[in-house]
Amino acid sequence: MTTSERTWLKDPIAVLAEGAERGVVVEDGRITELVGKGAEPSHPVHKVFDASRHVVTPGLVNTHHHMFQTLTRAHPAAINKELFPWLQALFPIWAKNVNPDNLRLATRLALTELLISGCTTASDHQYLFPPGLDAAMDIQAEEAGKLGVRMTLTRGALNLTTEEGGNADQGAVQDTDVILADCERVIGRYHDRSEGAMLQVALAPCAPFNVTKRLMVETAALAERCGCRLHTHLGETRDENDYCMEHFGYRPVDYLEECGWLNDRVWLAHGIHFNDEEVMRLGRHGVGVSHCPTSNMVLASGQCRTKELEAAGSPVGLGVDGSASNDNSNLMEGVRHALMINRLTYNAESVTHFDAFRWATEGSARCLGRDDIGAIAVGKQADMALYTLDELRFSGAGDPLAALVLCGAYKADRVMVKGDWRVEDGVPVGMDLAKLRYEHGEAAKAFLESL
């Protein structure tokens, strides 16, 4: 399909949109019409795609990931640990082994997994820059372009080692001036602020416990000057709160404010351990939160206060988080986990599958500062995921949209980005999955040999 053709995705089983019972019309990479019950497209179409086997959702949007970590899934040194000991086990392994070649494979694998799960836009918090990995952002831009996935290149950073009071490995940190110079380079090369952009840039010092205050302050100023967003981990564990009290004399949200980060340019990863006053303050300033339900459960970090944050005014999105704390890159699975953990946190009546979908689509888009994606609506970018209900797990399901979440959909049959099919019959267009699995698996062996 070429983007200039007017194409009707006709008669789906269900669509996650109002007034689209008979499908969606796409042209020039945008959604141009929703076809309601009993209606026909208002203008002639060039092509018809028979969607009668499909349930259609907006393309999912991933707001937090660490793609290099696909190389250390279920790593023997790190399983059955909480965040700080988990990081202590893995930082030296990552610093020693991550290089341009295996980062490329890790990024390709993670983006492929995301795309197959129905994700059309991804943000990767790439904070690891050991010697020789200066071109990490360029590698990720190239891989996203090859797959046709939208991406926010999130230029992370580490500059505070264990010897200096942080927890980053000496082999993974960079000089502050080097970091800032590369941030400017990456913004200048890749940050596209136009509607429908395929690449944008965010700046992302890793966390209060492994970057300096100077880096936090100067990245905030750079982001404001260049019109890009800011991202960091915050409030993930009680250990982080204790660290901030010991080193700064106050809690993480106070530190965020002192660094100039309390504004609507910012979205935070995890955002679990906030008190009532902090929730209200974050909401008042429009600070977004990337809810990472799977990782939060694996590492026993805690339960994000999603409903209170949204009520206060914070955009809430979803992230798969790192593929060594998840341990996969399937955002549709993350939607299911979000529903489950939030029902446990609140109750079954007030957290619905529509809430989980909203976090993964509109909420995530808001976290990334985008209003052109995240919904099936006229004028939005034509990013959609199409799932079938053919598997045994769906037999007997009455509500098709609820079934995707409750019955455990994990793989899209078709995925469209900017009006182009990027997944057909469950496989990314032009991708040799067996080859990718072999090459990535071979690269990952070095990380086990580091034990």
TrEMBL record:
Belongs to the metallo-dependent hydrolases superfamily. ATZ/TRZ family. GO terms for molecular function: 8-oxoguanine deaminase activity; deaminase activity; metal ion binding. Its EC number is 3.5.4.32. PANTHER family: AMIDOHYDROLASE-RELATED DOMAIN-CONTAINING PROTEIN, AMINOHYDROLASE SSNA-RELATED. The keyword Nucleotide-binding does not apply. Keywords: Hydrolase, Metal-binding, Zinc. Residues 55-421 form the Amidohydrolase-related domain. Signal peptide: none annotated. The keyword Zinc applies. InterPro entries: Amidohydro-rel, Metal-dep_hydrolase_composite, Metal_Hydrolase, MTA/SAH_deaminase. It is an enzyme of class 3 (hydrolase). This is 8-oxoguanine deaminase. It holds the Pfam family Amidohydro_1.
